[in-house]
Amino acid sequence: MRKGDISRFIEDAVHWRMFDQNVQAIKARNADIPTDELQAAIDEACAAARADRFCARIHGPERNGT
Predict the structure, then answer these.
(1) CB-based contact 55:63 (threshold 8 Å)
(2) Closest by Cα among 6, 26, 4 to 14
(3) Which of 9, 15, 21, 55 has the most CB within a 10 Å radius?
(4) pLDDT tens figures, 5-34
(5) Phi and psi (nearest 5°) for 65?
(6) At 60, is the secondary structure helix, strand, or coil?
(7) 66 and 56 Cβ atoms separated by less than 8 Å
(8) Cα angle, residue 65 at apex, residues 60 and 66 outer, rounded to 5°
(9) pLDDT for position 58
(10) Among 10, 29, 8, which Cα is nearest to 18's?
(11) Euclidean distance between CA atoms 17 and 29, whole angstroms
């Protein structure tokens, strides 16, 4: 084991724990939203993100509003 391996392991564990807590909080917050409505919102957000990435590739970042 090299120096810093344990601290890196702990740092990774903390990040995963924080990620898991955020996921659980989002799931709880969205529990009362119908599945099809939630999926439509996800699809819309993905489409917008893909369009932004495509526009940035074609026209450069200065043309996509960022």
Answers:
(1) yes
(2) 6
(3) 55
(4) 889 999 999 999 999 999 999 999 999 999
(5) 90, 5
(6) coil
(7) yes
(8) 75
(9) 72
(10) 10
(11) 18
